[in-house]
Specification:
Mean pLDDT: 95
Number of helices: 9
Distance between the termini: 18 Å
Largest sheet: 6 strands, mixed
CATH class of the largest domain: Alpha Beta
Bound molecules: cytidine-5'-monophosphate
Radius of gyration: 19 Å
Length: 286
């Protein structure tokens, strides 16, 4: 099963609550590329075994702190069973990169676990398990374009045109808590406009016009911690195929929206030459 990359087309972040969590509003879409998860049930009495491979698998812990294992443990609790299974995670997406990889992996494994062990488990129960894994757990479980509000868990589905895009990660990890702390330190809290979600998103050009009126409030704090992000955005904005460029989530992955798949492929090839150390992928977002 594919665990697709999540992209925040915009991300508005307000002042944190007493727990330090930030109310937010975001338009999230999903790519046609992602990590891959395979689940193979084993004989009763055997252990859970997570094996990680793929270009970004190295150094990733397969232990209890892995979001896939956390999701399995929550599922075991909810379903009242101890699982014996081999899980293989092929990590194609850069880690700690603002595109929801770990949450998407958790969401995919929850779908596989329900399908195998508890087909009658209601969606609401599965959603609660995904939400317990992290603030973007629910959006990554359903992997459908939506306006996310609350702390990221309240979703209103939206129908969007499918858009050619290029994703670029400069090869530096970005810690989400550190970026939020930097946002707090800059003390320029933004307000969330309740009317924002209802802008015209009926065509790619209308969507891009609308996005020009929005922000990613974590872009400046992420750049303060990782200046490489500013370089990526500068390069993206200088390319003729880029219709719109921004950072996703808490970074460091940035995206460029393009007008056609051909332009996205041309752009991605050129970027690979311009930024040989970066991770660059042409894809479609929807
Ligand atoms: O929920 P998750 O573990 O993915 O969040 C990682 C960190 O991001 C939290 O510890 C918190 O510092 C920050 N966060 C936040 N407000 C949100 C979501 C995440 O402050 N709405």
């Amino acid at each position: 099963m594919i665990a697709p990359a999540k992209i925040n087309l915009y991300l508005h972040v307000a002042q944190p609550d007493d727990r330090g969590y930030h109310p937010l509003q975001s338009l999230v879409v999903f790519a046609d590329i992602g990590d891959e998860i395979i689940l193979q049930p084993k004989a009763y009495g055997e252990e859970l075994n997570l094996r990680i491979d793929g270009p970004f698998g190295e150094g990733l812990s397969p232990g209890e702190d892995n979001l896939v294992v956390k999701a399995v443990r929550r599922f075991e609790q909810a379903a009242g069973m101890r699982l014996a299974a081999d899980i293989r995670l092929t990590k194609n997406l850069p880690v700690a990169s603002g595109i929801g990889g770990g949450s998407a992996d958790a969401g995919a494994v929850l779908h596989l676990l329900r399908g195998t062990y508890a087909p009658d488990m209601p969606d609401a129960d599965l959603e609660a398990l995904a939400g317990a894994v992290g603030a973007d757990g629910v959006m990554c479980l359903w992997a459908k374009s939506a306006i996310a509000e609350g702390f990221g868990e309240k979703l209103t589905p939206v129908s969007l045109p499918s858009m050619p895009a290029v994703l670029v990660n400069p090869g530096v990890e970005c810690s989400t808590p550190a970026v939020f702390r930097q946002y707090d330190a800059e003390d320029g809290f933004q307000n969330i406009d309740a009317k924002q979600p209802f802008f015209d998103i009926s065509s790619p050009s209308a969507l891009i016009d609308a996005l020009e009126t929005t922000r990613n409030d974590l872009e400046a704090p992420a750049i303060a911690l990782r200046p490489e992000i500013a370089d990526v955005l500068m390069v993206l904005n200088a390319q003729p195929e880029t219709a719109f460029a921004r950072m996703s989530g808490s970074g460091a992955t940035c995206f460029a929206l393009c007008r056609s798949d051909d332009e996205a492929r041309t752009l991605s090839r050129r970027l690979e030459g311009l930024m040989p150390r970066a991770w660059v992928r042409a894809c479609r977002l929807s």
